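Risk register update: the risk of archive-format incompatibility is retired. Evidence:
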Amino acid sequence: MALVDGFGRQHDDLRVSVTDRCNLRCAYCMPEEPEWFPRERILSFEEIERLVRLLVADGVRKVRITGGEPLVRSGIESLVGMLAAIDGVEDLSLTTNGVLLDRLAEPLRRAGLRRLNVSLDTFRADRFAELTRRDQLDRVLAGLVAARDAGFERIKINTVLMPGVNDDEVEEIVERSRREGYEVRFIEFMPLSNGSWDPARVLSGDKVRERIEARWPLTPDPAGDPHAPATRYLFTDGAGAVGFINSVTAPFCSNCSRLRLTSDGHFRVCIYDNNEVDLKTPMRAGASDESLREQVVEALSRKTRGGALEIVEKQAALPLARTMHQIGG
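Archived output:
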């Protein structure tokens, strides 16, 4: 049973949130004093494995572990091992803020994690503390080194750029990432903060690319994945690559292949779609795999052409029932 929606889009990419909790407080992701889900509301590792296995049987090939901050989930390396062992998972990755990566990079690698994305919006300590409301930049930088030492290749840094906040660091971030062997993904500020977003806060990825090209010539990556959210460019001097996720100025909804499973067991077909399907309650009540699969297929059949397209057309954020840390990256 293929995971195809009414627009013919096939879904092979699953984002799995394992916790809503985080050790940072980035303003565009969560309130300063968030209310966490009760622990009994969170899926167990065994429940996550069951749902992932079910979706892999129907065509999912890429699995990304997210949060909140996934590394605050105790025993996360055990879950990595469980998911890595599922036949059909071709790409297992994880997005982290990097604070706990210095001690977990090696165990995660041994458990079968293949790729890492580290969210980092600045290399300046004072600005990091302001953006995240925590003074942890040294830990993040140590985590990046630990990940490289553990053997992770093509470590990606996810950077959200905001005018007047950190857009003056573009060249600095690129230069340091090239020097230290990381690959930056510049991400347009997305309307996920329930009230604080407006189009003026979006720095176009095309403008960022033009700034970078003025110093380091780029060429489109001929092996780029058309379903990937990032458009990837290679530095013509051979020193790595850079990517741009232009989710606001150039939505990629028409090629969307992503599904989401929240930490409390809700299936979400679009990051902007509040019509979630609760899989945890029936699963805990004894529902069969076939019954759960039918709910997944039914939810997918209702997927719209894409919330990002509505945002572009209306030039306004869509109301969200959850903040980003509750949805998953």
